[in-house]
Amino acid sequence: MSATLGFTPAIAVSADQKTEYLGFARSAARAAGDAILPYFRSRMQVTNKLSGQGFDPVTLADQAGERVIRAAIEDAYPDHGIFGEEFGLKSGNGLTWVIDPIDGTRAFMTGMLHWGVLLALFDGEQPIVGVMYQPYTDELFSGDNESAWYERAGESQSLTTSACRRVDEACLSTTGIDWLPASKQGRFRQLSQATKLTKMGGDCYLFGMLAMGSLDLGVEAGLNAYDIQALMPIVRGAGGVVTDWEGGNPSLGGTVLASATQALHSEAMTLLGSA
Questions:
Q1: CA-based nearest residue to 264, from 226, 230, 213
Q2: Which of these, 110, 141, 170, 252, is most buried using a 10 Å CB contact count?
Q3: What's the domain range around 173?
Q4: Is the Cβ–Cβ distance between 259 and 247 less than 8 Å?
């Protein structure tokens, strides 16, 4: 798994193709959820991928979920690339499916609900469709950078971010400050202390809540491409903004700042850069 994802010239995709790919992503994420759910809240074995140098858990559920998605992609789009957290990179024609079978494995292994199946299609520069699926609650968030949707119990609704424009009125969430590199923690506190509320914990689910309008800011660091790509088209499709902390493209991971509005994003980015 030494090979990783990189930027390449964007592959052109028509509107009809994008619609097809988003429908496929929804179905594949649901199928992965079906494979994962029997492991949830069971006493399954957890393996540490870091071999004693920290803790990065992987379970049989992670592996089962990714295998289901990979098989679906290889059947439907055999010329497409695949990049997954558990089984690495398979090169393709320039369009690459990016998979995190369980984003929030720590939440999953402790029976908490803020985890989900993530699947995106990367055109070489940006993810063009993205899906997050929480199979226990049967909640599916999806987006294509222009629109975003929430589905549950057979019903669907459009997603729209909040209208929050000021940091001192904003509700912020992050997976946890201990996840942030030491060099980033002071910058995060500068922003956090200026907000109305900071909620720790959330993983991928916080980005769904941002797209829904329940949160206004999401801040992360140390992410991989598979941690963020599926979430970008959802937040952007709901009207939000997603960049790294300096305003650049976060598609390959690193730092991430997601905001409900451009005005809020600009103020938050200034605070992140001022510590």
A1: 213
A2: 141
A3: 167-272
A4: no
